[in-house]
Amino acid sequence: MNILFLCTGNSCRSQMAEGWAKTLKSGEFTAWSAGVETHGLNPLAVKVMAEAGVDISGHTSKLVTDLPQDTEFDYVVTVCGHANENCPYFPAKTRVVHVGFDDPPTLARPMTDEAEILAVYRRVRDEIKEFVEGLPDSLNTAP
To answer: pTM for the full model?
Structure first.
């Protein structure tokens, strides 16, 4: 089974989801991530994932069109509203599931305290982990 985690810029949430999936579920499915735009890999996402023992530092921000063209996805999980609203077309056999998570960079933008900022990233990281731990069942219970 192939699962694509899709976000706006493929910089944070979708990267976290791919990292968790590859770490926790590598024997069950192949995970990918991409964006409807590219914003570069978020260094704070890299940092909080490393704290949890998951190295995403080698990931790159990419578009769906940057993925191998022969890859057929069983599921596309949009992890933000913008990606859900702007999701590219996938073949009929692909099930698109929306599971929105808060955007850490947006929430942290007005903050200046590093501990407070990292707490936001950690919370979202842990929420994504919980979702990925529940895969594939969580795909069937998503709206």
So the answer is: 0.94
What is the full DSSP assignment across 68-126?
A: -TT---SEEEE-SHHHHHTPPP--TTSEEEE-----HHHHHTT---HHHHHHHHHHHHH
Active site residues: 7, 80, 87
Count of CB atoms situated within 10 Å of the CB of 91: 7
pLDDT by residue (tens digit) across 41-98?
999 999 999 999 999 999 999 999 999 988 899 999 999 988 888 888 788 789 999 9
Give every CB contact of residue 78 below 8 A, 6+ residues apart in sequence. Answer: 6, 7, 84, 87, 96, 97, 98, 99, 100
The C-alpha atoms of residue 77 and residue 100 are separated, in whole angstroms, by: 9
